[in-house]
Every structure is written in C-alpha cells, then in structure tokens.
Amino acid sequence: MLSRRIIPCLDVRDGQVVKGVRFRDHVVMGAIEDLALRYRDEGADELVFYDITASPQGRGVDVAWVERVARLLDIPFCVAGGIRSVAQARAVLHAGADKVSVNTPALDRPELVSELAAEFGVQCVVVGIDSLRDADGEWRVRAYTGDPERTRALPRRTLDWVEEVQALGAGEIVLNCMGADGVRSGYDIEQLQAVRAHCRVPLVASGGAGEAAHFAAAFEQADADAALAASVFHAGTVRIRELKATLRSRGIEVRDDA
Amino acid sequence: MKVVLVDSGGANLGSVRYALERLGVAPVVSGDPAVISAADRVILPGVGAAAPGMARLRELDLVPTLRALDKPLLGICLGMQLLFESSEEGEVDCLGLLPGRVRRMRPAAGLRVPHMGWNRLAPCGDSPLLDGIPDGAQVYFVHGYAAPVDANTVASSEHGEAFSAVVQRGRVAGAQFHPERSAAFGARLLANFIQRGL
C-alpha cells in the first residue's frame, strides 16, 4: 500500500534555509546540507527546497547547491522557485533534483506546464498553488508570494486552476493555503477537500501544520497524499519519528522507520 | 569492475551516478557502444517518456549494443520499461529484451496516477538483486506506466492492481522504483547488482 508522505519544506535564500511567518520576516535556520541530512535521518519521505527569492527577483535557481544536495540525499527531493523555462528545469533536474515545482511562472505562462510535461514526463512536474479566500468566499490564486511587496491577487479561481494545470500535465499539486500558513492552527481542511474533489493527481497539503493531529486530519479528512510543513519541523515542535508513530497508531499507512 | 551508466538523456542520470558514488563505485557515463559493450555492469537509467527514450537510444545506435550485451544489465524506472517489447506510452516498440507490454496505470477511486511515493515490495521470485531486502520493504516510485506481473517478476508492488516492481530474466533486470532515491533498500539493490551481478 502506498504510504502517505511527510515532506519538510526548506525555504532557501542566499544559500541558507530560512523561515518566515506568513511569508514575512525571515530568520536563518541553518545550512542547506545540514538540514537536508537532519530531516533524512529523522525519517522525512521527501524534501522540497523552495528558492523563495528566485521568482520575485526574476532569476533562476542556483544549481550548485542542488547538486550538492543530490550527492548527499538518498530520498527524493523537489526544487521550487524561479523555474520558468524548459532549460532552467533541465538544469535543476540534471543537477539531481527529482521533480521541479512551478508556481508564478505557470500563472504567467500556463503552457510552461505542458512544455515541462512533454520534455520530462508528468511525474517530474509539480505545480504549486498559493491560494487565499477572498471576501466573496471564493478561493483565488496569488502570484509572486515570495516577496510580500510584489504579491499579486489574481482573478483566477483556485479550483479552475487545479483543473487547468492537470489538463496541461501537472503530475502533482501542492496546495498552499496562505491564510493558514505559518500560524500552526491546522491545515485548511475545507479548502483541501474542495481541491481534492478536482484533483486526480497526488495532492500535497501545505500551510498551517502545528501538531500531529493536523497531519492526521489532512490525510483522514481531506485524503491528501502528502503533507508539507516547515516551521514545526525547524522548531522541533513536531518530530517526524513521533509524528509517524502517531499516524501509524491511527491506521494511516506511513513509511517504516529506517 | 567497470560500471557504465548509459547516457540515455534521462533526468535521473546524475542521481544514479551519485548513488553509486555513495557505494564507492565510480561509474563511467557513456553513450558510446564500444564503451558500453566493454563494461562489466551496465545500468540504463531513465526518467521521461518511452518514445523520446527509445529515440535517444536509436540516435546513439545503442539498440543493437544493448540487445547483444553479455554482461548484467539493469534498467531503472523508464529504463526498465524500455527493456520490454513495447509500451502503451506513445505506442512505441522497445528493446524487446523481456517479453510483454508496458501499460498505463488506471486511476480509480482514491487511486492517483502517477503512482508517486513509498510503496511496499512483495518478493515473488529468486534474484540476487533482492538479497537483504525483506518482504514489505518500502521503496520510492514515480511512474504512470507499469509492466504487468509475469514469469520474470521477482518482486511485485500494488497500486490498484499488482505490477512488476523488480524483474529479472537471465542477465537482464529492471527496477520500476528508484533505487537511487529509496534510502537503504535502494542502496542495497544497487550494491547487490554491482557485487553479485545477475
């Protein structure tokens, strides 16, 4: 049986892992390689490295650290941020990343998703969606969320975008519920359920994890395939090994401890 | 021991090379038929789609080379799928080193395609590749097409229905999962291939 995945997300800025609250006020957490190995040893199933400044600054990912991580890690990892062309994706994948995740560049130019799928196969192509509920009750997508000054609200409805990116060739969707991000009060189960109903590829819950029960809810109530979190892992308030023991005791299939 | 990684253009070429390096093996990456023919172990990695994968092997004139190899050959992920006669993905003829056809995995209620994540192996045949890998070992898969279980299946896995996770016939073998990204069990399979052969 396929396991539900636990995915620590490492926000990368200037070659270091940082963490902010609601995408602001970033604090340095440590070196990329150190944190990558720490999470691998603790039982992470996969890692996401998110270059939070690449997209707002209009530059690509620095592949030197991608290659260093690829040499070290024996679990899969995905790189997000600043990938806006097939050539940039190729550089990241050839440096050793298993998947690339696109967000703002796919909103700017949706054909990017189909170009990546045609070139590398849908299994390499993750679409990240930053989503927030507007005053009229609709969830809509946000672009350039790496920089609060430049973050833009778009007219595109989140559920429409979920359908569109799958038709274009997304092999996985990461739904980051911005209203919940960084505040540790739980994943946005209502929004995840709504997206799940439209999502036939793997769905990764993101934003809001604060304790083990929140992960369980994402799996049990929203049928997410994976749950991503950052601050609770960085701060050590949730330990992956204990989290998995809790999930296992609730009958949720997770990867065995090494 | 000369280990050659076939430069088939797949995006996991680097990952497989690093996994071998972690085992203390320094592979040669090559698309040259002469280098591949002279290897002690040949690994055919691959990520992407079957048609461009086969096109690349034809372009490098590697189809006869791989068919005529007399040393152990291990295909990984798409590299394993290319060992079969044909693939439903793009309706393409493959290397024909193993009988059978690779088929699209069918999505069903609660069952997502691509099959992505850690799933369990169920050994069902005898292969040196599986030495030290227990029943139920979890390994990392990412694929939307799979080979059905047949007489050459030495370990199956299940996603909706059972499929071939590891195959072997004589000196030809394949792993549908990614040993380079499957932690200790993946490293064990690669080490078995290098040290024990097929």
UniProtKB/TrEMBL annotation, chain A:
The keyword Ubl conjugation does not apply. The keyword Oxidoreductase does not apply. Pathway: Amino-acid biosynthesis; L-histidine biosynthesis; L-histidine from 5-phospho-alpha-D-ribose 1-diphosphate: step 5/9. Keywords: Amino-acid biosynthesis, Cytoplasm, Histidine biosynthesis, Lyase. It catalyses: 5-[(5-phospho-1-deoxy-D-ribulos-1-ylimino)methylamino]-1-(5-phospho-beta-D-ribosyl)imidazole-4-carboxamide + L-glutamine = D-erythro-1-(imidazol-4-yl)glycerol 3-phosphate + 5-amino-1-(5-phospho-beta-D-ribosyl)imidazole-4-carboxamide + L-glutamate + H(+). The active site is at D11, D130. This is Imidazole glycerol phosphate synthase subunit HisF. It comes from Arenimonas soli.
Automatic annotation (TrEMBL), chain B:
The keyword Transit peptide does not apply. InterPro entries: Class_I_gatase-like (IPR029062), GATASE (IPR017926), Imidazole-glycPsynth_HisH (IPR010139). It comes from the Bacteria. Residues 5-194 form the Glutamine amidotransferase domain. It catalyses: L-glutamine + H2O = L-glutamate + NH4(+); 5-[(5-phospho-1-deoxy-D-ribulos-1-ylimino)methylamino]-1-(5-phospho-beta-D-ribosyl)imidazole-4-carboxamide + L-glutamine = D-erythro-1-(imidazol-4-yl)glycerol 3-phosphate + 5-amino-1-(5-phospho-beta-D-ribosyl)imidazole-4-carboxamide + L-glutamate + H(+). The keyword Cytoplasm applies. Keywords: Amino-acid biosynthesis, Cytoplasm, Glutamine amidotransferase, Histidine biosynthesis, Hydrolase, Lyase. It is found in: Cytoplasm. The active site is at C77, H178, E180. Pathway: Amino-acid biosynthesis; L-histidine biosynthesis; L-histidine from 5-phospho-alpha-D-ribose 1-diphosphate: step 5/9. Its main location: cytoplasm. Its EC number is 4.3.2.10, 3.5.1.2. IGPS catalyzes the conversion of PRFAR and glutamine to IGP, AICAR and glutamate. The HisH subunit catalyzes the hydrolysis of glutamine to glutamate and ammonia as part of the synthesis of IGP and AICAR. The resulting ammonia molecule is channeled to the active site of HisF. Heterodimer of HisH and HisF. This is Imidazole glycerol phosphate synthase subunit HisH. It comes from Arenimonas soli.
